[in-house]
Amino acid sequence: MIRDEALNKGKQIFVQWKIWRVEYIFSDKTGTLTRNLMEFFKCSIGGVMYGNGITEIEKGRAQRDGLNINEVKKSPTSLYEKGFNFDDPRLMRGAWRNENNPEICEEFFRCLAICHTVLPEGDEAPEKITYLAASPDEAALVTAAKNFGFFFYRRTPTLIKVRESHVEKMGKINDISYEILNVLEFNSTRKRQSVVCRFPNGRLVLYCKGADTVIYERLTDRNFEIKKITREHLEEFGSAGLRTLCLAYRELSNELYESWNEKFIQAKSSLRDREKKLDEVAELIEKDLTLIGCTAIEDKLQEGVPACIETLSRAGIKIWVLTGDKMETAINIAYACNLINNHMKQFMISSETDEIREVEDKGNQIEIARHIRESVKQQLDKCLEEAHNYLSTVSGPKLALIIDGKCLMYALDPNLRGKLLNLSLNCSAVVCCRVSPLQKAQVTSLVKKGAKKITLSIGDGANDVSMIQAAHVGVGISGLEGMQAVMASDFAIAQFRFLTDLLLVHGRWSYLRLCKVITYFFYKNLTFTLTQFWFTFQTGFSGQRFYDDWFQSLYNVIFTALPVIIVGLFDKDVSASLSKKYPELYKEGIRNMFFKWRVVAVWAFFSVYQSLVFYNFTVSASRKGNSSSGKIFGLWDVSTMAFTCVVVTVNLRLLLACNSITRWHYISVAGSIIAWFLFIFIYSGIMTPWDRQENIFFVIFVLMSTFYFYLMLLLVPVVALLGDFIYQGVQRWFFPYDFQIVQEIHRHEPEASSRPELLQISNHLTPEEARSYAISQLPRETSKHTGFAFDSPGYESFFASQQGVIAPQKAWDVVRRASMRSQSRTPKPEG
């Protein structure tokens, strides 16, 4: 237990040390860059696309291309609720019955309503029911089924009840019970979910939904035209930044199901490798599927993500996005958040090529693997050659790499990972699509161990835990996917944009403070020790101590402890606003400017210099000095004088090293020096029968009665610190650090108060929060009424109306005014 606590504390110090040296950030997309608030937006059923909306990604792409997109007017049948933002009169309110393929539309909606693990909660009414889902995607799909007329409202261990509208004829509603026989759950390896259900008429159907790459591998050879059109729709949805899922089904015979179910039960009851056996059994039935269509779900970007990524890029940090979405979706999200732009040279390594598709259609898995491996090798060689050509030019463009999960699997092979690493390190941005949690961790480890760079991983869900733990620094976002990422991380934040403050502000300050604390500890202990070292030359290395034992014991504990703690807590070179205004300051940490051997050597040099000053000045001056009684100074007089100079000087030296000095710095330095004098007054002024330090008795009083003491107390610290003063002046004038230049630029500006920060934050509030914030800033009358438990100052509505803020009347305002009126009508008793 003690060892675990020690390891935990050591890791915390290590993380604080690395937080300002992060050079690579690995980020998840869903819930990290986006809000994880899924809305059913578009779909494709039987090769026909439905949905008329325009996404934010499409608007941004049109704006980049200089095009104007007119807003699509909402139809009268459009409907919006949490998880559903769909508009197409061809499907709403039973209109799908008039389509050319109503049967496949019916299968599409039924698949949405049945193939899931959602739990309904609340009243069994469409307006009041709420869905508890493992992910927001599932809740959005079930909500879509409800709005299309297939209302899932009850679940038991073996049944799902769906209220179906307009199936037999328009306006007719039927409550149908579907028997759930088997559930093949989703995981990061399978990338799909299936349900085997029995209809009331005995029909057996397997419904399956999952990633397009997985579903298309398991489709039947029929309906080639629908597969081709749906693939085009998937690419179009991906280009709009939408998250896609494919839906398919398979008709099962009783004999086929019974034989398969026996194997399923055996695998489920297995005690060893249960998950592996279940996946193998699932492969036996999840084949020869018939494609129904695909869904497109919108997940909007979080606020402030583009500005945050741009700021971090200016700080010299390279950002990699590792996502399970389609390549088109990931690319457009990367465009929307300023990760890549049109001025970058983009290298794409994809398995979605015509040659690979032709090989995949033949179905020979060995040939497919060989062909993809060769294709990846050729594309890596080609991209590496182009990258070296671009980098050899003076003003070449920045580079970006985009690779999908299937190609990444072969690129991470030991024979190719060196080329992948070389290419990736030359790119300013990398986007990995359709990757599994294991691949996320492998990519992170590739840079961490292969390139020896400081890495940071950020994610919000359980599938990001391996990536977070593989990096030097892990950051978890407390979002809608649970607390697994937060519990596995070193830091927890609410949104991605707060990464700017974590790295550029707190990371910088933490690194600077740690560097200063470590080097100062080294300096003050070396200075203290060297004064004793010089004394050994005079004693012939006899072992005679120079300082009293209590002086040595309390030097680090009391006399020099508090000031360095204050520096470790409060020191900062520039304010938080300037740290974010000049993100280039972060590059000093990446280059480790403040903890190089040169910096340590400078501290060591001045330690040697000051120790020589302490020893030689005090010893040389004492040779001609006498006490008030005429006696010459002895060993303990000289050592006490030298120790006094050491305590005063090393505490004052810390003030020279501080970038910002507060009253706590003055209090700690003055307190440490006063603590020394109080100690020596008491220690040398009291003699007890058990005291063996009779040599120190009355020493300080003898010293303070001489001119020698006051001369040394003034002269020695000045001479000792003169070298530091000159060095820091020359360094600041002729060889300044970046933060010192920023300090000079803003030297005459007062440090920003908290009020502008509050106003800046208020710009990011929702309209409801902004209104509440505006009301909170209104002037208030001091309440004199205390008759109610929740008394309010009231009159907010009056002040709000004066300043144009709408503030509703509150119940306690009305009660209070009525109370005040009743008090004014009550006659005062005559005196």
UniProtKB/TrEMBL annotation:
Residues 486-736 form the P-type ATPase C-terminal domain. It is an enzyme of class 7 (translocase). Its main location: membrane. One of its GO terms (biological process) is Golgi vesicle budding. It catalyses: ATP + H2O + phospholipidSide 1 = ADP + phosphate + phospholipidSide 2. InterPro entries: ATPase_P-typ_cyto_dom_N, ATPase_P-typ_P_site, ATPase_P-typ_TM_dom_sf, HAD-like_sf, HAD_sf, P-type_ATPase_IV, P_typ_ATPase, P_typ_ATPase_c. It comes from the Eukaryota. Gene3D superfamilies: Calcium-transporting ATPase, cytoplasmic domain N, HAD superfamily/HAD-like. It is found in: Endomembrane system; Membrane. It is a multi-pass membrane protein. GO terms for cellular component: endoplasmic reticulum; Golgi membrane; plasma membrane; trans-Golgi network. The active site is at 28 (4-aspartylphosphate intermediate). Mg(2+) binds at residues 28, 30, 460, 464. ATP binds at residues 28-30, 138, 186, 209, 243, 323-325, 434, 440, 463-464. The chain crosses the membrane at residues 517-535, 555-574, 595-612, 632-652, 664-684, 696-722. Its cofactor is Mg(2+). GO terms for molecular function: ATP binding; ATP hydrolysis activity; flippase activity; magnesium ion binding. Its EC number is 7.6.2.1. Belongs to the cation transport ATPase (P-type) (TC 3.A.3) family. Type IV subfamily. This is Phospholipid-transporting ATPase.
